[in-house]
User: Fold this.
Amino acid sequence: MKYNAPMITIGIIDYLNVEPLYFRLQERLAGKPIQFRRGVPTELNRALAAGEVDLAPISAIAAARMSSEVAILPNLSIATLGAVKTVLLFSWMADPRELDDCRIALSDESATSVELVKLLAQHFWRVSPRYAVEPQNLEDMLRRSSAALLIGDDALVESAHRRSLPGRGQPYAFDLGDEWLKWTGLPFVFALWAARREALPALAALDILPALYASKRDGLAHIPQIAQAYAPRLGLDVGVITKYLYDLRYDLGPSDRAGLLTFLSMALPHFRPETLQCWHPQEGLHPVFEDVMVPG
Assistant:
């Protein structure tokens, strides 16, 4: 069948954590005017804002900042309740509360996690560090700084190996999903699937959402196989990857949205919750937080 819809570009975060949600997606969308673009979160944030991609998993805080231009796809997210293993603060200090007036290197691949570090520092650890955004390389970052934020596959590898760095020894590691849970008792949402609003008719015409949800169901049923295929890329044990994927939350349920609203309300003081809207072809747009209490 031929389609008259314009070419749609779908973004894919180039990390392990999205693999279950894109399982066999290209096969499901074969023959349709769709292309894919891979990148780290900050690259996809920028590409979606610029209209270079139509749909992508992006940093949760970026979705809130672009709420007038994008709509969120329901029941899709990357979240965690407690330790996430791929958003880590490595530090030469044994306690984050010792980082007052210290330099923290922040990954240039992250947007949401960068803001999470700053919130935790100000409100939970009660310190005032100095920040610098740098390319993600743990050795280089910790050569110049007291702590370094690492995300994605690099963080998972470093977490699994817990190696010593030349001339310095082994840094301490703090999982920011775990720190958030200690502070708030809530899940933390790192990424949301967002689509440009002008692309919604084409997404509906091409049945992209049903294909995404089918991939998610299929992917979550095949996590051991995904882990087996991905393990050589990271040089990690299949069991480590399998447990990591099983521990993630992909549904954007009520408690996830409560955690997200708590985070956005603190990270973006002028954020209006009603502006972030979900879209479903049969239901149109409705507020993401319509059944979530606004935090005090």
